[in-house]
Specification:
Radius of gyration: 16 Å
Length: 210
Amino acid sequence: MDGRLERYITELFAAEDPILAAIRRRHDELDLPPILISPDEGKLLHVLLRAVGATNVLELGSLAGYSGVWLARALPPDGRLTTVEKDPRHAALARRAFAEAGLERRVQLLEGAALEILPTLTPGFDAVFVDADKEPLAQYFEWCVRLLRPRGLLLCDNAFFHGAVIDATDHSPATEGVRAFNRLAATDPRVTSAVVPIRDGLVVGVKTPG
C-alpha cells in the first residue's frame, strides 16, 4: 500500500490514544521483536469482535500487550480476554499494559506454552486471534476450531509471513507452518476463510455451524 494512504487510514480510522502509543514506544525502547500488529490491524480486529458481539476471546501470543488492549477494549465490561504467552518477560510487560489500560479485570493472562495450555481451556470462544510462534500453526489451527463456538471468528496474523509463503526456496519450519495454516484455513470445511491484505496479511475465518 502507498505509504500516504496507510498514514491517512491510520490517522483517520486507527489513531492511537496515549496508552496504546506508550505501549508501542516501550516495545521499541526495549528492543522487543518487531512483530506487534499495526494500529490499523488493531482497529480491524476491534471492529470484527464488535461485529460478532464477542464476549469471550482467546489470544495466542501476548507479546507486550498491544494487540490485547485492542481486543479487550472491544469486549463488554463483563467480557473476558484469555491471552497466552510463554515468554516471562513479555508476560510481565503485557500485564503492565493491561493495568495501564484499566483492563486487568477483563484480561486473564496464562503464562506457558500454548500447546500445553490449549487442552485445559473450555470450548465456546467467540473469537481466537493467533499471533504466536509459526512452526506449530497447523496444531494451533486444530485447537482453534475445537475451541471456537459455531460462527466464531478465527483470526491469524502474518498470512504472508513477509513474503516467505511465495518464496519457493524457503522451506524453514516457520514458513512451512504458515503455509500449512493458510492451506487449512482455505480448505478445511469446518471454516470459511479469506485473507485481508492488511500489514502482513490477516486470515479471517468463520467456523461453520453444525
